[in-house]
Design a protein that fits this description.
The chain has 301 residues and is of the alpha/beta class. It folds into two domains: 256 residues, YjeF N-terminal domain (Rossmann fold, 3-Layer(aba) Sandwich), CATH 3.40.50.10260; 34 residues, no CATH class. The protein is built from ten helices and nine strands. α3 links the parallel β2 and β3. α2 crosses α3 and α3 runs parallel beside α4. The longest helix is centred in the first third of the chain and has 19 residues. The radius of gyration is 23 Å and the shape is elongated. The chain starts with a strand and ends with a helix. The relative contact order is 0.15.
């Protein structure tokens, strides 16, 4: 079983990973990028050569994950376009480092006379700039949502609802055309969700796949919020399992291995009968309200 954690518990796990286990937070971001790249490659038959990928980065650590992912995907042969919603110079910490790396890789100096720069990197500062960028037709194979992660607690505003509306149009066009491009991928959770809520709080990205890091969050698992995430991939990025197990959360996600183990443990022998599997006392229902009691007793059988 996997423990489901809150946003605060996830922050504490990250903090303890860096402080107690001497694992640099920049390394955790790099591991998140590598895990996300592997998940994307698996959806594309493990061949990213020449694939067109757009990565939409917010100004925080989720965007930093996206910028690091851009570099990893380029190293795997993809053609990557990065849009940062904000100024790279205003970013802090690990996100700032990865934005600056992406900027330099996108510079003319990173290319050569016969090869273009490894990736493109542009900053988007307002709605007008986004509308210009959105008007371009690139035919992407993958669009990565790295706008906001577990830190979001209020509805998206400013340019971001327009970004999500554009992604919805691309999804509708994809479904109308009957092909699988682009694949929409969210990092950690679809932007627009509060990690600790089962309800969306405003406009939300609808992903085909979500790569969440270390442990699933409530919004990854509980509907209707979970309906926006598509396939869920839980990626280990280097935090010791003991830190996850020590989190106060009492919520767990079962997986196929748990089901197989339970079926094996409760397998009936050929000579089984009622006295070999214990007895159950069902206390349920009330006068004229016996439906729940019947369902409960039936389940016990």
């Amino acid at each position: 079983m996997r423990k489901i954690v809150t946003a605060a518990e996830m922050r504490e796990i990250d903090r303890l990973t860096t402080e107690r286990y001497a694992t640099a937070s920049l390394l955790l971001m790099e591991q998140a990028a590598n895990a996300s790249a592997r998940a994307i490659a698996a959806r594309l038959s493990h061949d990213l050569t020449g694939k067109r990928i757009q990565i939409l980065c917010g100004p925080g650590n989720n965007g930093g994950d996206g910028a690091a992912l851009a570099r990893v995907l380029w190293m795997m042969g993809a053609r990557v376009d990065v849009i940062l919603f904000g100024h790279a110079e205003d970013a802090k910490g690990d996100a700032h480092v990865n934005f600056r790396i992406a900027q330099h890789l996108a510079s003319f100096a990173a290319g050569s006379n016969d090869r273009p720069p490894p990736l493109s990197f542009v900053e988007c500062h307002d709605i007008a700039a986004w509308e210009h960028l959105a008007g371009a037709r690139h035919g992407y194979d993958v669009i990565v949502d790295a706008l906001f992660g577990t830190g979001l607690a209020r509805p998206l505003e400013g340019v971001f609802p327009k970004v999500i509306a554009h992604l919805d149009l691309l999804r509708a066009a994809r479904e109308h055309a009957g092909h699988g491009r682009p694949l929409f991928v969210s990092l950690d959770l679809p932007s627009g969700l509060n990690a600790d809520s089962d309800e969306r709080i405003g406009p939300t990205v609808r992903a085909d796949m979500t790569v969440t890091f270390t442990a699933p969050k409530l919004a990854n698992i509980l509907p209707p919020a979970s309906h926006f995430g598509g396939q869920l991939v839980v990626a280990d990025i280097g935090s010791p399992l003991s830190l996850v197990e020590a989190a106060p959360s009492k919520l767990f996600l079962t997986d196929p291995a748990d089901a197989r183990a339970w079926l094996e443990a409760t397998r009936y022998a050929p000579d089984s009968y009622k006295n070999t599997h214990g007895h159950a006392l069902v206390v349920a229902g009330s006068r004229d309200m016996a439906g729940a009691a019947v369902l409960c007793a039936d389940a016990a059988m």
